[in-house]
Write a structure and sequence with these properties.
2 copies of one chain form a homodimer. By secondary structure, chain A is α+β, with helices and mostly antiparallel strands. Chain A is built from 17 helices and 18 strands. The N terminus of chain A is likely disordered.
């Protein structure tokens, strides 16, 4: 199937592959279907078999590979570790998967300028480890930080809990080295913390899901590690009480470095996993962390405790020991395995609404769950209004699947009505591209496609992603 | 001259102007040269007379105006208060200046979501005042904050001292409403603090100097005001000592909210203005501010004091009273008037280098000043490595002007050698466009121009700016 897809592109697969082999050498090329198989999916469980997998080794080699792809009009999908959830790295047209896993060198650790320059295959964790030795960290912290790569983080603008205080990759990247769809090289941005020379191509590439250029090197902006951190848990009788607390926490000056939310359905699910007994009447739970200098941390905890207070609060725990902290997080961390146990599959969305609209979102989601008879579990990064909405489904139940699709459609409508956005950090990929036109006006969409054509005139860089078919 | 420029564009000025009048009404249109005169320059003192000045009143009216300009191929330059320093708002081809001064409404103050939505003609100060009432501020703080507009701040990505801790407009803007060069409307970005749906057109427009689209509305991200602030001054015998202190201040966790630098030539110049006597052997001076919760501020001051310490430090003053603070800032604030007294004109650059390279930059600048026999005074935002390099000149001395041009050329080369950038916050406009190709590679420049063509196919939006002729 996939080599037929190549033929429709008027490319001679054999000729291309032998030219490619000369560029990569045999150690950096896979062409056997069995070898290529595992490079065809991501965490969305969608799968498309590539015709070949090449391992990127350096900037010049990538440039040579893309020049070949350009010449033969072969689709090429850059890939980190495939932890994305939207099918963005699945090679829908076959062609080449360009794996970055061997480009995993830290090129320059520069503590004096609070920056680190890395290859795209370096994992988020490697960056944290290298930066940590000098007292720094890189703010983006997706759940998959131990495995996912910086290249993938940049492709999706992936963030995590810390974004509420420290921002996403767009706020924490200084410059890029990249290769366009013609195989040409560009350097974007600066090596400094300020710069306004020419258009901002750095942020244009960040979040573009590999559709504009292949990133071969990134200079990341580091932040000094806080001297101390404090973890708290606040339990409310109602969703509404928890949401009001989120608003008042975000309206006072002490910005938490994590403000996570778990709804009643999720609490019910993890009740048995939680080492600390969760009260019977728990209707919603907040995990809150503050960080900063030791001298101010007690004051920060007091500020949060005060802002979290309202008539629906039934328990406020301030972790005093390392074990207390681990116990509090255990509830949150039990969620993913618990979800897997309860339902064979989940549709996991990461919609965002303005913080003040979270109560309306959660109430609306409850109604949609009832109307469509679909179990919905919500948790996520409340400080950013970024809620992970999980529709629990059984793919073998076709009637339920239809109801889930109808429900999801209305979830997106609800989010947009509330001035929200379809995705906070997962991106669009394949699974949400039919919804993008509901959020983005047609003139902007046309401009985005026009920009894509300038970077990638043969439409070979991750084609069929982001934009509606 | 300027109406001739219109004729060369094949436009019939009279027909265009009468069509324009129907859109704007006579109260929002100037066509008399005497009336238009003052809309032809900015703070660069360059001047080009526009054929007409229209006052923007709302999004729909701007759209109608740009549609006319598109039809008649009339150049159109959007303008705030003309405080820019690069000639970016001078209408080099004549045509229309679109003044934003009457679009000065705050449309939505949303403290619950830490955001404010404003029209582009609102001044930076108006934003600070409106946000301040709710305990917030907007981080960008150019020196001209009392007069300059948000539209201008976004066009240049203008920042100021606070950027070292709180970032530039690119880090502090959520979304825009704008009109492209065809008169079509786009909404970019989100109303939330996270979002990754489609390409980042928000940051693409920010810093594009009115060449891609006209911003009609901006939603800005607000930051809670710190509870307390502390101002310090550190005086060193040498430039080198001060620069080493900047590096060590930036390497520890307490990020100052201002870290300003003044060199020996500048100190000499303001000696007589300074209420506090500056020591004879002062070779460089740092102004440092920290902010944060009251509970941690003493600790922050101690951290800074420790990091500022080295064998070249001769005086460290920690302001205890409001009067002390005013006295310390008096030195810095005396600089601009003092410069005007000393030299009839200055070439004022705002280059940036990585913080660790500031000593090399300053030493290099001293050598260039000697070689070319040009007086250079340096001050600026040291925490970002953003140094305002002032070449003091007499425009009537043509030999000196030639030496200054040659010197400036070498200043830019030096900056690029040190991994720096030509501009931190002033932008390119007219005066630096011949240098842009030294910093930005030709593939990137071609891509930027191609992006411009997608937004502005008739090249009417602020033509001849940013890119080399």
């Amino acid at each position: 199937v996939s080599s037929r897809s190549l033929n429709t592109l008027n490319a001679d697969l054999e000729t291309f592959l032998s030219a490619l082999l000369k560029v990569t050498g045999k150690d950096n090329l896979l062409t056997d279907s069995a070898d290529c198989w595992s490079y065809g999916y991501d965490n969305s469980r969608l799968h498309h078999l590539p015709d070949a997998v090449a391992f990127a080794t350096d900037h010049e080699q990538i440039s040579a590979i893309i020049k070949l792809c350009y010449e033969y009009k072969i689709p090429v999908v850059a890939r980190g570790r495939g932890t994305g959830t939207t099918g963005a790295t699945t090679p829908v047209r076959g062609g080449l998967v360009l794996s970055m896993e061997r480009m995993n060198r830290i090129l320059d650790m520069d503590p004096d300028n609070r920056s680190i320059t890395v290859e795209p295959g370096v994992t988020n964790q490697q960056v944290q480890d290298a930066a940590g030795e000098h007292g720094f960290f890189w703010p983006p912290d997706p759940t998959s930080a131990a495995f996912c790569t910086v290249g993938g983080n940049l492709a999706y603008n992936s963030a995590g809990p810390r974004a509420v205080k420290y921002g996403t990759p767009r706020e924490n990247t200084l410059g890029l080295h990249a290769i366009t769809g013609t195989g040409e090289s560009i350097r974007t941005g600066v090596r400094t913390t300020k710069g306004v020379v020419g258009y901002d191509l750095t942020r244009l590439l960040i979040g573009s899901e590999g559709t504009l250029a292949i990133i071969s090197e990134a200079t990341l902006k580091l932040t000094p590690k806080a001297q101390s951190k404090h973890t708290m848990q606040a339990i409310y009788t109602s969703i509404d009480g928890a949401c009001r607390a989120v608003s008042s926490i975000m309206a006072q000056p002490t910005i938490p470095c994590a403000l996570e939310f778990i709804d009643a359905a999720a609490i019910e699910m993890v009740r048995s996993y939680s080492p600390a007994k969760l009260p019977e009447q728990a209707g919603a739970l907040l995990m809150i962390e503050v960080d900063g200098p030791v001298a101010g941390i007690k004051h920060a905890v007091d500020e949060i405790r005060q802002a979290a207070q309202n008539e629906d609060l039934i328990e406020f725990i301030n972790a005093e020991t390392e074990k207390d902290v681990a116990d509090l997080w255990a509830t949150r961390k039990a969620l993913s395995p618990a979800l897997r146990t309860v339902a064979p599959k989940k549709i996991n969305e990461d919609v965002v609404v303005p913080v003040s609209r979270i109560p309306e979102l959660i109430n609306g989601l409850e109604k949609l769950a009832q109307t469509h008879d679909i179990k919905i579990v919500n948790f996520g990064h409340a400080g950013n209004g970024n809620i992970h909405v999980n529709l629990l489904i059984d793919p073998d139940d076709s009637q339920q699947m239809q109801r889930a699709d109808a429900c999801l459609d209305e979830v997106f409508s609800l989010v947009l009505t509330l001035n929200g956005t379809l995705s906070g950090e997962h991106g669009i990929g394949l699974v949400k591209r039919e919804f993008i036109a509901r959020e983005i006006d047609s003139v902007s969409l046309q401009l985005m496609k026009a920009i894509k054509r300038q970077f990638d005139p043969h439409d070979i860089l991750n084609p069929d992603k982001i934009f509606p078919a």
